[in-house]
Design brief:
Strand content: 5-15%
GO molecular function: sulfotransferase activity
Keywords: Transferase
Largest sheet: 4 strands, parallel
GO biological process, one term: sulfation
Structural class: alpha/beta
Bound molecules: adenosine-3'-5'-diphosphate
Family: Belongs to the sulfotransferase 1 family.
Organism: Triticum aestivum (Wheat)
């Protein structure tokens, strides 16, 4: 049969490239997308946001939320990377792929897929797969264990199945700045205020951000063996420690021999910002279908960049929202 990861890479190179063309306002079983509340999407003239089950999803991905809930059949050894956009998805995808695929692709190998492909080409994107066209059937033929990623809130994932989810969370002010910078790679004139306001209002892509974060936070508290809650800032401080945690969580802990051979260090280096950024495919060209330059995924990679772009008033306002929404949850920033 197909070899896990070896064949996944081959199968999924074109996933994002084959994003379905605009699909809006269709009837999905009993959900009429065009009847859902809508808002414009900052920085996009083609797509808008629709409020589905309390979350503002890109209209083209509403069918994916419905499809995921109703038709996604998780396997017990599935691993799903989950995040809000700009929280370190690309990095975590790379780390998880390098960790789980290390038997067929040692991190120091000259033929490692991450030296040739974008991390997003190595890990299938559930939201795009379920967005239409029946492409989700591709998931059924993938050998176990499957590694996938999503930006959907926890509420959109099916309850049953017991698969493992790794969530990455990032300080909201830094996430806001990162999102704006990312949008500027397509629209250089875009003012920060539009992105900032939409994030604060909750009506931003996959938002409200606090409900997104809290959904996974609560799930990680209730089912710690199924949901691992990681933080971008902790990953920056201690990448190796977090990679070990990730490996244990997904059931492939590093052996003593691997530790001695420097496998963990190799994975951390292979997936470092400097290393990924220097890969040809990550430096040049555009993310097919999504129209953004691929290098926009690899920008600064630090904590605290918000201070360079926010006034103290803006920072306070966002901190107050976070403090208010996270009160008594045990989660702090
Ligand atoms: P900045 O814009 O603050 O630099 P996502 O992958 O979810 O879109 O998140 C993008 C953010 O992760 C960007 O943040 C990007 O620079 C950062 N990033 C990407 N690869 C990284 C890596 N290997 N290590 C650390 N940060 C990384």
């Amino acid at each position: 049969g197909p070899i896990p990861f070896k064949d996944v890479v081959v199968d999924n190179v074109d996933l994002v490239a084959t994003m379905p063309a605009e699909r809006s306002s269709e009837d999905h079983d009993d959900v009429l997308v065009s009847a859902l509340p809508s808002k414009p999407m900052v920085g996009s003239t083609q797509n808008k946001l629709r409020c589905y089950l309390g979350f503002w999803l890109p209209e083209t991905f509403v069918p994916a939320a419905i499809g995921l809930q109703r038709r996604f059949v998780p396997r017990p050894d599935d691993v799903i990377i989950a995040s809000l956009p700009k929280c370190g998805t690309t990095w975590l995808n790379a780390l998880a792929f390098a960790t789980m695929a290390r038997r067929c692709y040692p991190p120091a190998g000259a033929d490692h897929p991450l030296l040739r492909l974008s991390p997003h080409q190595c890990v299938p994107f559930l939201d795009a797969l379920f967005a239409g066209g029946g492409r989700e059937a591709r998931l059924d033929v993938l050998p176990s264990p499957r590694l996938m990623y999503t930006h959907m809130p926890h509420e959109m994932l099916p309850r049953a199945g017991g698969c493992r989810v790794v969530y990455i969370c990032r300080e909201p002010k830094d996430t806001a700045v990162s999102l704006w910078q990312f949008r500027r790679s397509m629209h250089p004139e875009l003012p920060f205020l539009d992105t900032f306001e939409s994030i604060c209002s909750g009506a931003n892509t996959y938002g409200p951000f606090w409900d997104h974060i809290l959904g996974y936070w609560r799930a990680s508290e209730s089912w710690p063996e199924n949901v691992l809650f990681l933080r971008y800032e902790k990953l920056l401080r201690d990448p190796a420690g977090n990679v070990r945690k990730l490996a244990r969580f997904v059931g492939v802990p590093f052996s003593e021999a691997e530790e001695e051979a420097g496998v963990v260090r190799g994975i951390v280096e292979l997936c470092s910002l400097g290393s990924l950024r220097s890969v040809e495919v990550n430096r040049t060209g555009y993310m097919d279908g999504l129209k953004f330059p691929r290098k926009a995924l690899f920008r600064k990679g630090v904590a605290g960049d918000w201070a360079n772009h926010m006034t103290p008033e803006m920072a306070r306002r966002m901190d107050d929202i976070v403090a208010d929404k996270l009160r008594a949850t045990g989660l702090t920033f």
